Here is the input.
Amino acid sequence: MDKQVDLKKSLKQFFGFSSFKGLQEPVIKNLLSDNDTFVIMPTGGGKSMCYQLPALLCEGTALVVSPLIALMKNQVDTIRGISAHDGIAHVLNSSLNKTETLRVKQDLISGVTKLLFVAPESLAKKDTIDFLKTIKISFLAVDEAHCISEWGHDFRPEYRNLRTILDQMGQKISIIALTATATPKVQEDILKNLKISDAKVFKSSFNRPNLYYEVRSKSDQVETDIIKFVKSNPGKSGIVYCLSRKRVEELAKVLQVNGVNALPYHAGLDSKTRVRNQDMFLKEDCDVIVATIAFGMGIDKPDVRFVIHHDIPKSIESYYQETGRAGRDGGEGHCLAFYSYKDIEKLEKFMSGKPVAEQEVGFALLNEMVSYAETSISRRKFILHYFGEEFDSENGEGADMDDNMRYPKTKSEAGKELKILIQTILDTKEKYKSKEIVKTLTGAKNALILSHRTHEKHFFGIGKDRDAKFWMALLRQALIEGYFSKEIETYGIIKLTPQAVSFLNQPGSFLITADHDYESSQLSVTQSKPQGNTDKILMGLLLSLRKQVAQEEDVPPFAVFQEYSLDDMALKYPISLQELNQINGVGEGKAKRYGSKFIELIKKYVAENQITRPDDLIIKSTGANSALKLYLIQSIDRKLSLDDIASAKGMDMPRLITEMETIVFSGTKLNIDYWINDIFDDDQIDELTDYFMEADSDELHLASDQFDGDYEEEELRLFRLKFISEVGN
Here is the structure.
């Protein structure tokens, strides 16, 4: 009891807090009793206190291993802030000069220093080990301990040598390992590697009930979507994560020109700029940081109100850690991720050069992220299940704090199908991952299925009356509900649990919701649909007007405005030429030529129906797109080869055509006859012109069907460009 009082007194004396947070007190007591300790505590849970206070109370110096210099600096500043002597905490790393290193060593010898922060690379040096043998070490704290495990999201090989280094020091030293993200497998790996299998484990709940999780489809308009979101949260502090440095720079500029106080942060910036931008964010001189994942580890800003992922992260752990920087003060925290399967394919390509085992781990982690994005069940339940924690998605704390729970999809009965799924996993001897199980059910073959001769079995294709998406959704949801288990070290092989065996013997009801289908919404610029609810009555009026204008001008309706442009008009109600210019696929040329009648109609409709229009939002460009547009127009005017133009801008041909479509569909002429005449003969040109002139729609699959596949998609896209340029612009 006295110890408890003393601890609280010490907490107040050193840090000014009158009570401990969560599991801090029992963790500290365990460490002060010289026991090995393992702490799993979410971001913002107060992990640092678990070794800072004991270090101040123990005889000798605590060694704290940390992966990032910025993180160490942050903590040293905190500790020095509570002491009269700066020597109480030091960093020992390669950034110090000889004089600074000597000063650190003198403070350690004199016993002034209570906490020494080191990077594992510095600790591994022979002269460092030899020096540390001469001083009293109170304990070793391993911060960000998940770095030890190759199954974690941030594996650092240097971390795996810590036990060996410790043994070389020749002192019996207790260890405290701490992490904010660790799956059961990573936890096991940490304990084994540090040889602290008897350590007492303290695990806090991973649930952050104040965080709201949301996933949106990532369209070509993602920058506009991000600007709208940020501007609808004025003055609030937020982080936007991107995968590449280039994207960070571009997005920060776009936000700045649109009146958002934003700064970039990535490892490619010089250290002075990085530190300045980070400090400006912490001191509230900047609202939004656009960053790569280099930003954030150990950054303690309690009032971050939103975390946006422009690109989906590589693993659930990374995602959890990054979103965990929102709402650390217990207040509002909105976690918004934009998801496109194209981004997943990019991440898979990045992995292709790595060793096979590393690729397998990477793919398994990435697959979990895909499952999270596409699931229609409680996102909170999904995340917590991943970390080995149960959650009641109906009544648990924060149960309605995600888009799936707030706007639920209809459930359907799938008890019969679950029985078929369980039986199929049993029949295939529990040796397949989810992808192969689904292929077995739908009767699709791949190399693995052929090598196991599964395609010859009686059950192959037993579920082909349902599509692959249905079976994948069922498998994912049954996994979360405890019917299957999946271990990352076997790269995601599905095993049955006793619950599944029991269901097989006594089948019952099982309700599921269909997964989100984001893939079908990843359409090209020529087909992309705006997000939101379009006004169906207005849409009907706009279609009628388009038909009338097309007849007057003697052109096909799609040459006036594309249907997706009308969709956008029925969503945003533009009532001026300037507003019409902001509509998807409408440029100045189109607006001037055809716009006045459409604006007139919308104005009248808005007035008659007393419609409240969305707030005006005109997204300004940084000029990068304008520069590309100008380059393409000039190059085509000079009749340069399209292959050469694509190559000069690092594009493939489909991407170049998409950029050209953006120009032409917005009302600017592009004369590509020099290229068309090389591809088609006169008869083909006449045939295609007649077709598009008579067609109600410019959809390519209809044209392809009309000509029985005689023309490639690329050829039809190019001809459509020529046609709309001549007839519609």
Notes: Confidence is low (pLDDT under 50) at residues 1-5, 521-532. The radius of gyration is 30 Å.
